[in-house]
Amino acid sequence: MPKPIFQIGAYVFDYLNLMLNLSGESRNLTLMKAYLLRNLCNHKGAILKRDDILLAVWGNDDYFTGRSLDVFISRLRKYLKDDP
Asked: 47-70, pLDDT tens digit by residue?
């Protein structure tokens, strides 16, 4: 079974409850954002190929899913910005 809780700097990411917590403040994540963040956490310290992420999360690697990935990464960066 995949690990359900991740430490990302000062953040605690609870995959099973789709929550990202920082200093007592919680943010709900969509299932897709949580799945993408879990995929990134499971490969901490590794460089992931864009195509591998697209196939793992969306099941294909066409142009439109690539643009979706860009949007999701941008949103996750905004969520994580409060911890340098």
From this structure: 999 999 999 889 998 899 999 999
Token pair belonging to 59: 């099941």
At 23 the three-state DSSP class reads: coil
pTM of the model as a whole: 0.89
Please count the other Cβ atoms lying within 10 Å of the Cβ belonging to residue 27: 14
Structure tokens at 55: 């196939």
Its sign, for the CA torsion 26, 29, 33, 34, is positive
Handedness of CA 33, 35, 36, 38 (dihedral sign): positive
Which pLDDT value is given to residue 12? 96
Which H/E stretch holds residue 8? strand 5-8
**Residue 47 backbone phi and psi in degrees, to 5:** -95, 120
User: Over 80: is that where the pLDDT of 2 sits?
Assistant: no
**For residues 40 and 69, what is the distance between their CA atoms, to the nearest angstrom?**
12
